[in-house]
Amino acid sequence: MTEKYIYPFQKGDGKNKALLGGKGANLCEMTQIGLNVPPGFVITTKACRDYLDNHQLPEGLLKDVKAHIAEVEARTGKKFGDRHNPLLVSVRSGSAISMPGMMDTILNLGLNVQTLAGLIEQTGDARFAYDAYRRFIQLFGKVALGIDDEKFDLHFAAIKKQAGVKADVSLDADHLRQISELFLQVVLEETGKPFPEDVYEQLELAIKAVFNSWMGKRAVDYRREFHITPNIANGTAVNVVAMVFGNMGNDCATGVGFTRNPGTGVNEMYGEYLVNAQGEDVVAGIRTPKPVQELAHEMPDLYQQLVELRNKLEAHYKEVQDYEYTIERGILYCLQTRNGKMNAPAMVRSSVDMMAEGLISKEHALLRINPELLEQLLHPQLDPDHKAQPVAQGLPASPGAAFGKCVFDADTAELMGRAGEMVILLREETKPEDIHGFFAAQGILTSRGGKTSHAAVVARGMGKACIAGAEDIKIDVRAHQAIIGDLHIREGDIITLDGSTGLIYLGKIATIEPSFFEELKTLLAWADEFADLKVYANVDTPERARLAVSYGATGIGLCRTERMFNAADRLPLVIDMILAGSTEARRQALEKLFPIQREDFKQLFEAMSPYPVTVRLLDPPMHEFLPGEHQLEDEIKSLNLYKVMIQGQQVTLDTLGLQASLPAPFTHLNEEVINKAIAKKELMLTKVKELYEVNPMLGHRGVRLGMSYPEIYQMQIRSILEAAALCTQQGIPILPEIMVPQVITAQELIKVKIFVEEIQHEVECRYGIALEFKFGTMIETVRACTRAGELAKVAEFFSFGTNDLTQATFSFSREDAENKFLPLYNETGLLEDNPFEVLDAKGVGQLMKMTIEAGRFTRPDIKIGICGEHGGHPQSIRFCHHIKLDYVSCSAPRIPIARLAAAHAKLLEDDYRLS
Ligand code: PEP
Ligand code: MG
């Protein structure tokens, strides 16, 4: 045989998981570092592939197996198939990556009528031997001979009933002997042949069965689900290992452990064990295992050995290990180890501790944590032990968990929120005018829209849970109820949202609050030491800015000013501005907004001092600030109706339940008041109709508004520069940046720049100071990418708005794509990823590269960043590092993720270039 298909544990390369499988490689490695592993050998994954290709075991394999069994015999002093001192083995599957429970394993192989007698002789324990035998016949029967488990279980249950016992452990040797005999009978009946007595025949059938289980339905489905391609794992290895028994008496035990506490990361002995038991008893939960600390009293010497085993495992693997062991007659054997799966706090804490203990380097401490895992840390989470079943599911639009009473409009949300109630706002979709409802609500649920719908973007910015596009829910705002099939959820009913999964539950599920703990701060400070990319925040309020700084943001990369327009004290002024019939009237409305905006910016600059704050001039189309057409029509209809009803009487708004539809000063109604209200609503309706656009996202928005209504941009620029002047006067170090959205030509920028220079001149004269700030543009249209060289003549910075740029490059909108065809595209591989989540390096990324090259050619020191949602996504951040952006900007809760991802990007940059 030319190919080497078998490696004994003393010889196999512990790093070669592709060839030996994860379990086999670890058994080799543990043996070679001197841990007490039962003797055995690995049959390679290549042997599996050859077997599956040729439908027969590779030539000479069985001969080789025999030679290796002989070696195991020599090491154990037992003999395979021997009447007096039999060697029993386990035959275990194990591919390159762990696929728990997907493939088959057989224990106690080597038992037959002869060796059974030997085992009884060897152990002096007939009960133990028959127990091992009946387990082996059933497992072998199922795995190697394809017999249904049920056939065995029926007999087992019948004997238990006959014996009048409830628990398996109450069966005595005679019962187990009877069961074994019945099981042998089952095999004869089901296969037409007696149970194989030849132990090598048993071994051959078992090896083939394990190989075959690689192509079993369970394993194939699992690989498809988790995208395990042949380059990740190709075939299963077979581990043949001498059996050791934890159930041979009270000097035997079996247990599982973690080298650190997987719930907290604390460096302590952690695990459970059972005296006189088999491994599967611990896992199956038949008996309650004891905490490992008790072993210190029960078997002090073995406890000490276990501590040493644990220390050796960590010192060697430099990773928290999840291990299994057995104590057979006072001797400790390590049966398995693998990297431990832990929650986010435990990963962070163990990273920091292992670095402090000198076990791992800083780089390793950072790289062992998947940045996305940190998401868990900054949002409330559902209590992991909850048992509730979801009633519906939508898109996970903004992570975190929240519960509260259902409300169906923003005003009620605000009223109830003020009264101290927890509320969840349910809408078909939200609009900027609902913003006060967002402030008051714990979470937002919409039945329409995607992950970039208004609700999703605003909720993410605020760090609130949001589920969008839950299309199975019919939201009836007028009846104040939501309907899911037969279920009616009414105002005041409590629901819980899990914005991380999109699942919706009826009733309250407790949540666990996030915390930014010391170890996380330490870890992220290390990340900053390595990262080239700076991490900025997309925030719009001083509170969120302070939060972002506390998470480690070193600037604001995007302040969407329209969010400020939506606050309760400004929206009426903004509406007046939109309704204004002339430039002069618009200027007057803007005059009222000016001091408010100036104060907003001043507070924002102060909160971020001394870091840069990028303020984007108004971006969304104007109609977004007005109520919808249907809503206005309904309100006008109602008002006309009320006018008829009251017939000149004084009626309070409350009696009519009209609180929401008229401005606050009107506490009493008379015809005059109603007429005024109708007139205003009609004016709004006319305006809404006038502003109607077929494609609002491609319409009159962004800098185009600034060109049509320069006075809006001028007011905003003045607010920014005066706020800057006030801060400078007070000695507060600041770095404002004025950013223009939706730019397509340098001419637009030049025009805005002129406004800026004029206002700058005025402000500098008035305040007697020189202002320091930058002027730049968003790059979110394809044309901006193609004209970057020209834009850079005017702009001192570029910020990629990859939300719009992705939409423009793909020519489809996120909402339509995600709700209609994108899942199909992803499932069938037409597109690898959702480009709105994962930056499309091949398309959008090429435009970015081109833009950067042209921009830096014109202006070598131009500052370039990204403020689209991709700025908080690790894989996209790696690309941003690769194309040498200066910063990424993301919502506050993603800042820690982005900081860690930026460090990963740097530490793994060579791999990226090669990939
Ligand atoms: C973008 O388009 O990427 C962007 C940040 O702007 P907005 O999401 O506000 O349109
Ligand atoms: Mg945009």
TrEMBL record:
Domain PEP-utilising enzyme C-terminal residue range list: 519-906
Pfam families, A to Z: PEP-utilizers, PEP-utilizers_C, PPDK_N
Residues noted as binding Mg(2+) in the record, renumbered to the chain: 780, 804
EC number of this enzyme: 2.7.9.1
InterPro entries referenced in this protein's UniProt entry, alphabetically: ATP_grasp_subdomain_1, PEP-util_enz_mobile_dom, PEP_util_AS, PEP_util_C, Phosphohistidine_dom_sf, PPDK_AMP/ATP-bd, Pyruvate_phosphate_dikinase, Pyrv/PenolPyrv_kinase-like_dom
Keywords assigned by UniProt, alphabetized: ATP-binding, Coiled coil, Kinase, Magnesium, Metal-binding, Nucleotide-binding, Pyruvate, Transferase
UniProt cofactor(s): Mg(2+)
Residue ranges the record marks as coiled coil: 292-326
Ligand binding (substrate): 560, 616, 780, 801-804
Enzyme class: transferase
PEP-utilising enzyme mobile domain location: 422-502
PROSITE patterns: PEP_ENZYMES_PHOS_SITE (PS00370)
Start and end residues of each Pyruvate phosphate dikinase AMP/ATP-binding domain: 18-58, 63-290
Active-site residues per Swiss-Prot or TrEMBL entry: 454, 867
Keyword Lipoprotein: no
Gene3D superfamilies associated with the record: 1.20.80.30, ATP-grasp fold, A domain, ATP-grasp fold, B domain, Phosphoenolpyruvate-binding domains, Phosphohistidine domain, Pyruvate Phosphate Dikinase, domain 2
Catalytic activity: pyruvate + phosphate + ATP = phosphoenolpyruvate + AMP + diphosphate + H(+)
Gene Ontology MF terms in the entry: ATP binding; kinase activity; metal ion binding; pyruvate, phosphate dikinase activity
Entry keyword annotation includes Hydrolase: no
Family in the record: Belongs to the PEP-utilizing enzyme family.
Function: Catalyzes the reversible phosphorylation of pyruvate and phosphate.
Protein name listed in UniProt: Pyruvate, phosphate dikinase
Encoding gene per record: ppdK
